[in-house]
Structure formats: C-alpha cells, structure tokens
Amino acid sequence: MRLLPDDPALKWVPYLWLVYLAIPFMSLILGGGSGLQWGFTLAATAAFLPLYFLGYWLSGWRAVLNAFAVAALGFLGVFVNPGANVFFVYAAAALGPTGPPATGTRWLAALVGLVGLEAWLFDLHPWIWGPGIAFSLIVGAVTIHFAEVQRKNARLRLAREEVERLAKVAERERIARDLHDLLGHTLSVVVVKAELAVKTFEKDPRRALQEILEVEEISRNALGEVRRAVEGYRSSGSGGLDEEVENARRALAGARVALKVAVDGEIVGEKLGPREEGVLALALREAVTNVIRHARATTCKIRVFLEGAEAHLEVSDDGRGGGSEGAGLSGMRERVVSLGGRVVRTAEGGTRIEVVLPLARKGSP
User: Fold this and answer.
1) What is the pLDDT of residue 157?
2) What is the pLDDT of residue 360?
3) Positive or negative CA dihedral for 325, 327, 332, 336?
4) Given this model, what pLDDT does residue 33 score?
5) What are the distances in angstroms from CA 81 to CA 46, 73, 123, 349?
6) Residue 90: count of CB within 10 angstroms of its CB
7) CB within 8 A of 184, min separation 6: which ones?
8) What is the largest CA-CA distance in the chain?
9) According to the 3-state scheme, what is the secondary structure of the chain?
10) Which residues have CB under 8 Å from 179's CB, separation 6+?
11) Among 187, 180, 188, which residue's Cα sits nearest to residue 234?
C-alpha cells in the first residue's frame, strides 16, 4: 500500500514535516507529563498519521473534512497537552488542495477563527493559542500558494503533453504525405512500364528489355528518394522543379501522353524560394501522377509563370476529368496552404490543377 501519490514533486518532503510531531512529546518531557497525558498524546499521534498521509490523496471537500479532522485532535488535545496545538498547523497545511486560493483562504480563516473562539471560550493560555494561530496563518498561506502553483504546473504539463501529441500526429501525417508523393508517382511509372514490357515482349523483346531496365533504374531512384525523405529532405532531388519537369516528361512518355511545357526560367532561377520550389515540385509530381493513373489523356500541359507577386503552376490534360480529390491532392493542398497559397482544381473537359504561391521575400529560407 502506497502512503503517498506517485508525484515526483513530493519525494521525501512529507516525511520531513513529521519532525514537528516531536513538539507535543517535548512538552510532556519538559513539563513532566502524567500517564494520562502520555496515553492521550500517543493515541492522538496514532490517529493523526493516517489522516496526514490521506491528505496527500484528497482534494476539494474531502480535503476540507480531512483537515478539520486533524484540527479536531488539536481542539481536544490542548486541554490535555498544550503541545497539541501543532495539529492546528498540520490542519492549515492540509488546506492547500481544497480548491483555488480564495477557497483555501476562506477555510484557513475559518480554522483560525475556531481556534480563537476556543481560546476565548475556555480562556486558554496565550502560549497555547498564540503559536497555533500564528504558525497556522504562515504555513497555511504558504501551502495554499504552492498548491496553486502545483495546479498551474500540472495544467502546463498537460498542455505540453497535448502539444507534443499533436506534433507527433502532424509529423506522422507529414511523413505519410511525403511518402505518398515520393512513391505514388514512381510506382505509377513502374506499373505503366511493366505493363508495356508485358505487351511488347513477344513482338519486340528488345523494347521489353529496355522497359524492364528502366523499371530497375526508377526503382533505384525511388530507394534514394526514400532515404532522403527519412533524412528529412522534402524535395525529390537537387534539381528541384526543373528536375521534376524532366521526370514528368519521361513518365508521360512511358504512358504515351504527349507533353507541352512552358516554364518561366526567371521564376525558378531568381524569384522562387527553395521552400516554394520544393512545394511546387511535389505538386507537379502529384498532378502528373494523377494524369498517368486516372486521366486516360493523350496530351498534358505544364505551365509555370509569374503573375504579380505570385508564382503559378498549371497542369492540365485532355482526359476524362471528373473524379474526387484523393489523399495526394489533399496533401498537396495542405502544403500549399501552409505557405499562404491556394490550389484550384477543375474537371470539365479534362482536369486542370492550378497551384498559386506568393513569392518568397528576399532573405527567406
């Protein structure tokens, strides 16, 4: 059975405060206590110890009842042993968990008032009620203050744990999104080339072998991309948007989709920041992947241009259009929105995806 809650802030301190239980016994030793006095003091101490440790587990009304049960030992004990006024101090110390500081202060005032009332009614010696009231006020006020500090720290710990949990969830979602964007495109190309190799194997074995060799090369590149993603890189490679345009050209050629490209070199070379270029590169990859997977298109157009203080990426095809947004497009939208941009998708007479990003300011990473 545990005497104290599993709270790192407590440690051995509650055991240290028990040293003040020596006061009633010192009073008997110095004053030559009788057998009745010794018997009552031992019984009161035995009754106090369970209440003392129980107080560390309680809060609210239960803590109030427990504190005044301890005080009752003092109210009765001072008639037998003046040193029993130490129980008033222990009762005041137990008022911290009763609630907010205002609540604890009210209960402390009630406790001190009862001690004063008892002293007045029974004309107790000042050495009995004086230290009891003085130390109860000091210890009670300190305990109430630090109890509130502990409650605030507990709320801060919970808030920090929640922030950490949400950060982990966001990181898992980011990793899943990145892997989808990195591998979805590559695996789509692998499937297309593998299907082409099967179809041409009997008629043109050399063409089939070439497609398989390209599958091997693409797979090796995908392995490198995954390794870079694990190391924390988001871009598909050092070439950024230019490289992704070339990847799109090869992938669409394998899917027998004609490609038309118009890229404003000034944007990529001078106006577009690294983060913006990385997001546009991944957006281009996802858009081209969707063309290969779903569009059944014969032509795809890629445009990158500047309009005002915004960079635009447009990917359009002459495929069947329609369809709903999948995880890839949702991930694209989240990335773009995080940089203050927007994604517009239309699906009439083919599919058109437009990504708009504000240009990075000078000095931006």
Assistant:
1) 82
2) 65
3) positive
4) 83
5) 15, 11, 15, 98
6) 23
7) 286, 289, 328
8) 117
9) CCCCCCCCCCCCHHHHHHHHHHHHHHHHHHHCCCHHHHHHHHHHHHHHHHHHHHHHHCCHHHHHHHHHHHHHHHHHHCCCCHHHHHHHHHHHHCCHHHCCHHHHHHHHHHHHHHHHHHHHHCCCCHHHHHHHHHHHHHHHHHHHHHHHHHHHHHHHHHHHHHHHHHHHHHHHHHHHHHHHHHHHHHHHHHHHHHHHHHHHCCCCHHHHHHHHHHHHHHHHHHHHHHHHHHCCCCCCCCCHHHHHHHHHHHHHHHCCCEEEEEECHHHHHHHCCHHHHHHHHHHHHHHHHHHHHHHCCCEEEEEEEEECCEEEEEEEECCCCCCCCCHHHHHHHHHHHHCCCEEEEECCCCCEEEEEEECCCCCCC
10) 226, 229
11) 180
The set of residues, in sequence order, having a beta carbon less than 8 Å from that of 235 and lying 6+ positions away, is: 277, 278, 281, 282
Residues contacting 86, CB < 8 A, separation 6+: 20, 21, 23, 24, 74, 132
Structure tokens that stand for 325 in this block: 């947004």
Give residue 228's pLDDT: 64
Which amino acid is located at 77 in the chain? G
The count of other CB atoms within 10 Å of the CB of residue 229 is 18
Q: Which has the closest alpha carbon to 254: 200, 180, 320, 322?
A: 200
What is d(CA 105, CA 296) in angstroms, rounded to the nearest whole number? 76
Rounded Cα distance between 145 and 125, Å, is: 31
Low-confidence ranges of the chain (pLDDT < 50): 233-238, 362-365
Q: What pLDDT is attached to residue 49?
A: 95
135's tokens: 């130390």
Q: CA dihedral defined by 210, 211, 214, 218, rounded to 10 degrees?
A: -170
pTM of the model: 0.54
Compute the distance between CA of residue 319 and CA of residue 349 in angstroms, rounded to an integer.
7
Cβ atoms within 10 A of the Cβ of 216, count? Answer: 10
Residue 325 has a pLDDT of 72
